[in-house]
Request: fold
Amino acid sequence: MAVSTLLNETTTTSNGFVEPAASPLLLLGQGRDLASERGVECTGALPAPSDPDLVERARAARAALGGRAFVLGHHYQRDEVIDFADVTGDSFKLAREAAARPEAEFVIFCGVHFMAESADILTSDAQQVVLPDLAAGCSMADMAAIGQVEEAWATLSDVGITGDTVPVTYMNSSAAIKAFTGRHGGTVCTSSNAQVALRWAFDQVGGVDGTGKVLFLPDQHLGRNTAVQQLGLSLDDCVVYDPRKPMGGLTEAQLRDARMILWRGHCSVHGRFSERNVTEIRAKAPGVNVLVHPECKHEVVTAADMVGSTEYIIRALDAAEPGSTWAIGTELNLVRRLAKAHPDKQVHYLDSTVCFCSTMNRIDLPHLVWAMESLADGRTVNRIVVDPDDAHWARVALDQMLALPGL
Reply:
């Protein structure tokens, strides 16, 4: 029986999982023209969400496309979308799955923009990557614009430390940022292999125990948590570079002394969880296992029992003992799906209000049906194409990640 005890206004699902109360974010667009909230570049009428034939239309369009299309569904997608995915996974797993299907003419990526870019980089020129709603972006990725990063690198050059600094960018970044990383001898990382990627980066400039530095983009929390909890660096070794301030809001001495220069970015979902959430669930559910994503704040990660990527969270629940109690700090669609898949365990949601990824949720069944019906009718819509030069250098950074041990 899946339960939650931290909620004020709640909704109980059919399997007993108590969902958090809706946050004001979910009311965005109320009282306005809802059609204007449905993204951009939608060159046709979207089916109505209330269309009783919507599921059947999705089935028919998927059947019409057959093996010409490969549908990818990120773990944070709605159930109505996941139902039509050929493969589910995290961002990098899905991009690799797309690259492993060269026979698919169309790759329909039900995720966000940077994920579709990665799929375009890793697939062949003969394949077309489609994002059902171009407004499905990522607030974290948008916190590191290429112009800002190039200006920051120029600042580090003026201070005289670029020769001892290796850039590492999280998978959750734009193709342009991945390309910047490739051009400057760095690598991409995922939340699963961030420790290996950072150790590799430090090895390029004297090792973890040396004086070299890593510029970590764009999520400060993943960088800090990995450096401190897994590599043994201290919080004092980490500084946060704010691109909106001169010299990132730091002094020359701070930049020279730092080992981890963390970009001032974060995940809007995982950044919501607090140490108070952890304290409250421990009081309400004695013996609970608190499991959080490494994009959470450092104090949340420190207070948790287990920390890991989306795939790690799924494996942990799969392996958990029947009757065990869990509080999970990640996106609600995934937590709800895990609760449904594990009725023999108590699954709590760590936050007290809804924590959907609002941009990920822009991919809904109407958009997916519209994209698939368009492709079946011979019209390619919302194709994602990465600039060739950016694609080359981003591929260099991605290939460096693929060469890391353990991936």
Q: What stands out?
A: The mean pLDDT is 88. Residues 42 and 133 are 7 Å apart (CA to CA). The chain is about 35% helix and 15% strand. The two ends are 35 Å apart (CA to CA).
